[in-house]
Design a protein that fits this description.
Elements: E1 4-10, H1 18-30, E2 36-42, H2 54-57, E3 61-62, E4 68-69, H3 72-79, E5 89-91, H4 92-104, H5 115-134, E6 138-143, H6 153-166, E7 171-178, E8 181-182, E9 187-188, H7 191-202, E10 209-214, H8 220-230, E11 237-241, H9 250-256, H10 259-266, H11 277-287, E12 291-299, H12 309-321, E13 324-332, H13 333-339, H14 341-344, E14 350-353, H15 362-375, E15 379-382, H16 384-396, E16 404-405, E17 415-419, E18 434-442, H17 447-452, E19 456-463, E20 465-467, H18 472-477, E21 481-485, E22 492-496, E23 503-506, H19 521-539
Parallel strand pairs: 1-6, 1-7, 2-5, 2-6, 7-10, 10-11, 12-13, 12-14, 14-15, 15-23, 16-17
Antiparallel strand pairs: 3-4, 8-9, 17-20, 18-19, 18-21, 21-22, 22-23
Bound molecules: glutamine.
């Protein structure tokens, strides 16, 4: 059987959860025994999202191969077992860069270089390339943005041509649309969906399945109306209501609506029903956990839903692993600066300081780390969160009062965190940090080795600064433990404070490798420690 293709587009508004829909469909197809691959096309002109700030783009998701990608790829990895590489995220920036390089190299000699066919061919090449390299049964390609965006047009044209080339039962178009509830009228409205589908049809794309995002149930009459006006069979107008508890409900919701069946039928795929028993078990733990715990995430983008997406997800996975519901309290580091750590962090079972760049909120994070260390409050630091813990220990235990990272104070007398050697010559910004999966050796008898149950691990990185080895001895003498380092011993990867019930931080980003069905060991341990902290307090 040749590869089959699913294209997921979005209509009406952005933030509809297209990525979740694509990932959930991936879950269902994978659990029918198919090998799947997921791919995201982003129409913006940045070569990758690595240079965008979280207000623009939310989290930057890092892959094993060091690609800095769209956060939807995080959903793909969490929902499925597919292996993602930089081939799985294509932006207009990359497409144009390739086309312009080709032009300069004389590959189109004599021709006028145009959007059709040169840009659209380049987009199609990427789909073919993924099919060749993954040998997947089904490739799900999500087109970012909303139908009608000018910059999305070449992508829509490319998939139209692609579908024509592979033939009618080899490609299926799924359009995720919005059916708003208008309070004043007391009803759901289908007009935006009609218009969005009309827009697609104008450019030659006719969706086979409409996934209707809505707050209220989509009644039969409305489905009939959408079916009639949008030229989609009645049973292919499906409801995707807002979830009650968790995004991990979406695959089961789509299964109830038979989306996977519709896709398989359209693609002439004769495969068994998906086995979702393990997924239902995950959901049971999320909906009816035995216990609850409250975790503070101390950051500077706390008002943004998407800035620490993988971190929030990994915390929830830690909850699943402990049969425990987690209430995440988003703590503004600057509020700690104003109000003091004791007041703001009161009542939490543990705190997590995630990755970040730039000076804002740094002192608040340092105060949070100090409060956690001095009060036996479980602490998990990720990337910047490790650097914060280091600075805090230097200042308050080693009494190097002006210790800092050279990122924030280039003139500090005690640069306990300093730029990586390899970074000092880097001038270009995109894709130039220490990126991707790197091996890390764990020291015997440490909390890290106990949690991982292994001595060599691989974790993903995204940073320019590191622990300054000139200070290793002083830290070690004061009881600070370097429990993980690169196999050559040159870079510190994990630190811990062994006199504390759970105080550990990593230079890497463990959150990128956590899945609901494979919770990451650091998060599993963190939530267990937070639970223990809570019960110790109630007993005491
Ligand atoms: N800003 C820090 C560095 O570049 C931390 C990066 C991060 O947290 N991802 O090293």
């Amino acid at each position: 059987m040749g590869t089959k293709y699913v294209f997921v587009t979005g209509g009406v508004v952005s933030s509809l959860g297209k990525g979740l829909t694509a990932a959930s469909l991936g879950t269902l197809l994978e659990n029918r025994g198919l090998k799947i691959a997921l791919q995201k096309f982003d129409p913006y002109l940045n070569v990758d999202p690595g240079t965008m700030n979280p207000y623009q783009h939310g989290e930057v998701y890092v892959l094993d191969d060091g690609a800095e990608t769209d956060l939807d790829l995080g959903h793909y990895e969490r929902f499925t077992n597919c292996q993602l590489t930089r081939l799985n995220n294509l932006t207009s920036g990359q497409v144009y860069q390739t086309v312009l390089n080709n032009e300069r190299e004389g590959k189109y000699l004599g021709k006028t270089v145009q959007v059709i066919p040169h840009v659209t061919d380049e987009i199609q090449n990427r789909i073919h390339l993924l099919a060749e390299t993954t040998r997947a049964d089904v490739i799900i390609t999500e087109i970012g943005g909303t139908t009608g965006d000018i910059e999305g047009l070449p992508f829509l044209e490319a998939i139209r041509e692609f579908a024509l080339e592979v033939g009618p039962h080899n490609a299926v178009f799924v359009h995720v649309t919005y059916v708003p509830f208008i309070k004043a009228a007391g009803e759901l409205k289908t007009k935006p969906t009609q218009q969005s589908v009309a827009k697609l049809r104008e450019i030659g794309l006719a969706p086979h399945i409409l996934v209707c995002r809505c707050e209220k149930p989509l009644e039969k009459e409305l489905r009939q109306k959408i079916s009639l006006f949008c030229n989609v069979p009645f049973e292919a107008v499906v409801e995707e209501k807002d979830v009650d508890h968790s995004i991990y409900e979406v695959p089961l919701m789509l299964q109830r609506e038979r989306v996977d069946e519709l896709v398989c039928r359209q693609l002439r795929l004769d495969v068994p029903q998906p086995n979702m028993a393990h997924w239902q078990e995950i959901l049971r733990k999320i909906i009816a956990p035995q216990r609850r715990v409250r975790i503070g995430v101390v950051g500077k983008y706390i008002e943004l839903q998407d800035a620490y997406k993988s971190v929030y997800e990994a915390i929830n996975h830690g909850g699943i692993a402990n049969d425990c519901g987690v209430d995440i309290q988003k703590v503004d580091a600057e509020e700690i600066e104003r109000e003091g750590a004791a007041k703001v962090l009161h009542g939490l079972g543990g705190i997590l300081v995630p990755g970040g760049f730039g000076e804002r909120g740094i002192e608040g994070k340092i105060q949070a780390a100090r409060y956690a260390r001095e009060n036996g409050l479980p602490y998990l630091g990720l990337c910047l969160g490790m650097q914060i813990a280091t600075i805090e220990f230097a200042r308050h235990v080693l009494k190097l009062t002006r210790a800092h990272s050279t990122e924030f104070d280039p003139a500090t007398p005690h640069p306990v965190i300093a730029m990586l050697d390899e970074q000092t010559r880097v001038t270009r910004k995109g894709g130039t940090m220490r990126l991707g999966a790197q091996a890390c050796q764990l020291a015997v008898g440490t909390l890290a080795a106990r949690l991982y149950g292994a001595f060599v691990i691989k974790e993903r990185h995204r940073h320019r600064y590191e622990f300054n080895n000139a200070y290793r001895e002083r830290f070690a003498k004061a009881g600070f433990v370097f429990s993980g380092q690169t196999p050559d011993g040159k870079l510190v990867e994990i630190i811990e404070e062994p006199r504390h019930p759970f105080y550990i931080a990593s230079q890497f980003h463990p959150e990128f490798q956590s899945k609901p069905h494979q919770p990451h060991p650091l998060f599993r341990g963190f939530i267990a420690a937070a639970l223990a902290h809570g019960s110790a307090k109630t007993q005491g």
